[in-house]
What we know:
This protein is of the alpha+beta class. It contains eleven helices and ten strands.
Amino acid sequence: MDFQLNAEQRMWQETAHNFCQTELKPRAAQTDTEARLPLDVIKKMAPLGLLALPVPEAEGGPGLDVLSAAIAIEEMGRACGSTALSVAAHNGLCLSPLIAFGTAEQKAKYLPALMSGERLGALALTEPGAGSDLAGAQTTATLEDDGWIINGSKAWITNPSLSSIVITLCRTDRDAGTHGFSLLIVETDRPGFLINPPEKKMGLKGSPTHMLTFDSVRVPHENLLGEAGRGLQQTLATLDGGRIGIGAMAVGLAQAALDEALSYAKERQTFGRPIAQHQAIQHMLADMSTEIEAARLLVYRAAWLKNQGQPFSKEAAMAKLFASETAERVAFKALQIHGSYGYSAEFPLERIYRDQRLLTIGEGTSEILRTVIARRVLE
Ligand SMILES: Cc1cc2nc3c(=O)[nH]c(=O)nc-3n(C[C@H](O)[C@H](O)[C@H](O)COP(=O)(O)OP(=O)(O)OC[C@H]3O[C@@H](n4cnc5c(N)ncnc54)[C@H](O)[C@@H]3O)c2cc1C
């Protein structure tokens, strides 16, 4: 057992860390207040491979191992939650299924623009009436001579306003139960495809989230991603991998909260000494550091298992569950350590606190993850 990153991974971590701290972090507050991603910084991610994390070298990507990809998302989360969410969704929810299930033609057609930072990718699963219960999705795709016709709506979708394609989960056979779904690649300029105004959110405000309407949107046969009837299974496999990314983002946000708390605790004086010298504050900092280490190890282990080609579904669920709930506890304590200043929008902690709150909800709520884990441990 080796708990060290190898030399290549250490170098990659340093590169990602330096880029995120110098380019992303200084723009994080503005990204939040203006509710707009720093697209110029995101474009600069392309040559580093940050916009092609799951893409093998043979397909023009950096050919990273799964752990390195997770480290990159962790570093983004530490610097800017909004950018981390959008880039994690681009890599984990759009590029990953394209790489796993796409044909050579689909990869050749869509990957170049997506890897260049010109456009980000999106995956549309959730609907106004179906989130956790994806088998309840009602958006339909009907097969006709010249392709598929899609009708319905999707809700809470990250990135579509910046995307060239939205991979969309559709019901393609009403009588086939969980084998009645397929994933279709929908180009965002197709007639009948409507991106509704952005959602006004509590946090991660720079990351665009939209409801989508499909009004008889036609896509050709060749836009089917993977096998017809396997859409739900392909989706669940995608979400297993995506959870490693969201877990990594949670570790990054928790680390950012700890970074802020540590520097504040060393500076803020009460009763004639820095608050870091009060035992109550020290205990909070100790708990925060310990939980972050545990969360990081769970995320790294899930990434390692995936990289080895071993089953990782339970471990990814555990990692995402624990890391997201750790981020919540750590952000709470970090804000407590800041006193009133933690409640002020002038300090980064207020944004970090709001940003991390999504993480126990998106890509599997804590309740659903506990169900997934319980099913596995009861086998
Ligand atoms: C900022 C943001 C970005 C997002 N990005 C995307 C995206 O890119 N693509 C996409 O498809 N979706 C996206 N989502 C949607 C997100 O994945 C869903 O919100 C999430 O899956 C939960 O679904 P829901 O909101 O419908 O909650 P529901 O499924 O309605 O759940 C409501 C509550 O009931 C609980 N619950 C539900 N079923 C059970 C059960 N069986 N047992 C116990 N408790 C249960 C849940 O845990 C939750 O607490 C995004 C959401 C947000 C807020």
